[in-house]
């Protein structure tokens, strides 16, 4: 893991791209449906969000969680040759159990 430490309610995710195979065996690339949610593994989380009253709301997401998020929510970054996604906790649709 590179040296990325997210701030506030940001999350660093390593994306997992799934290919879909049709019943007839045709592989459909992940670019075929741009609105399809994506998933990945959380590499690092920030401390949480500071609320208007000054209190810190801690993160629900933790390192190691597998998460589902929308395609256009994250920002792509490349550090030391590795690609990561930075997103807000609110961009996460679900934790995969």
Structure description:
The protein has 97 residues and is mostly beta strands. The protein has no helices and ten strands. The chain has a six-stranded antiparallel β-sheet with strand order 8-9-1-4-7-10, with no helix packed on it. A two-stranded antiparallel sheet has the order 2-3. Strands 5-6 form a two-stranded antiparallel ribbon. It is elongated, with a radius of gyration of 15 Å. The mean pLDDT is 85.
Number of helices: 0
Q: End-to-end span in angstroms?
A: 23 Å
- Order of the strands making up the biggest sheet: 8-9-1-4-7-10
Query: Strand-and-helix sequence, N→C?
Result: EEEEEEEEEE
- Helical amount among residues, as a percent range? under 10%
- The parts where pLDDT drops under 50 for at least 5 residues are none
Any idea what the shape is? elongated
Give the overall pLDDT as a whole number. Answer: 85
Q: Strand fraction band?
A: over 45%
Largest sheet: 6 strands, antiparallel
Write the layout of secondary structure elements.
Layout: E1 10-16, E2 20-21, E3 27-28, E4 38-45, E5 49-50, E6 56-57, E7 66-69, E8 75-79, E9 82-88, E10 92-96
Antiparallel strand pairs: 1-4, 1-9, 2-3, 4-7, 5-6, 7-10, 8-9
